[in-house]
Amino acid sequence: MRASLLQVAVNEGESVESRRRRVAGMVREQAGADLVVLPELWTTGAFAYEGFGREAEPLDGPTHEALAEAASDAGVWLHAGSVPERAPDGTLYNTSLVLSPSGETAAVYRKIHRFGFDKGEAVLMGAGDALVTVRLPHTTLGLATCYDLRFPELFRGLVDAGAETFVVPAGWPERRRSHWTLLARARAVENQAFVLACGTAGTHAGIPQAGHSIVVDPWGEVLAEAGPGEQVLTVDFDPKTVAGTRERFPALKDRVLGLDRPHR
Question: What is the pTM of this model?
Answer without folding.
Answer: 0.97
